[in-house]
Amino acid sequence: MAGKMTSRRQQAMQMRSRIQKAALDLFDKEGFENVSVEQIAHEVGCSVGNIYHYFKSKDELALQVTDNVDQIYLELEKEYAADTKSTAYDKLLDFVGQALHASAEEEVLYKAFIQGLKYPEQGALKDSDKRVYHRLLRQMVAACQAEGSISAAYTVAEVVEMLVALHRGMLFEWRIYESDFDLVGRGRKMAAALLKGLK
Questions:
Q1: What pTM was estimated for this model as a whole?
Q2: What is the rounded CA–CA span in Å between residue 134 and residue 137?
Q3: Of 81, 137, 145, 148, whose CB has the highest number of CB atoms within 10 Å?
Q4: What is the per-residue pLDDT for 122?
């Protein structure tokens, strides 16, 4: 079991999160190109130097908003590795639900998603080896193929692409209907239907 987080580490994570949230709010209102690091610092109530303590540049700030949720995925990865009773298929379906829950609960992550749509040239939404989400999906799909719950006729990349598209589509639907939409339940149901077709 991991040790308890120090208060200094908690404060640092809170400050990073405040900076990211303020930056994404400003990017949303004024456009990424129109926002300066000075404006972000003013909005947060900190120095420009403090911003650069956490982020090398404004671009990096926009791209690193996934760090907090990646920690959630790393914890899930440990749990799945320790779970020797569940099938790879069951773990994958669970991950679909957990990832949707994280995307909806983490306000900064949802704003980053919108930011990524507005500024595709930043590449924030593209598959990346740096993102735990994509790496874990690839591992789980490969494990499903090894156990026979997903056909090897499809490449891992093809299946991951389909699951990512499903994830994003579910987020859009949830945003339209919000409280009337069971994001996790529907996401798992859609993923199960998709995977059944890939068996």
A1: 0.72
A2: 5
A3: 137
A4: 64
Q: Name the residue with tokens 């579910």.
A: 170
Q: Is the pLDDT of residue 1 over 50?
A: no
- For the stretch 75-131, pLDDT in tens is 889 999 999 999 999 999 999 999 998 888 776 666 677 767 776 776 666 766 777
Q: Is 156 exposed, middle or buried (0-12, 13-18, 19+ CB in 10 A)?
A: middle
Cα–Cα distance for residue pair 96/183, rounded to 1 Å: 10
d(CA 10, CA 141): 34
Using alpha carbons, select from 175, 35, 179 the residue that is nearest to residue 109: 175
Long-range contacts of 121-129 (CB under 8 A, 24+ apart): 122/32, 122/59, 122/62, 122/63, 123/63, 124/62, 124/63, 124/65, 124/66, 127/157, 127/160, 127/161, 127/164
Phi/psi at 148 (5° precision): 90, 10
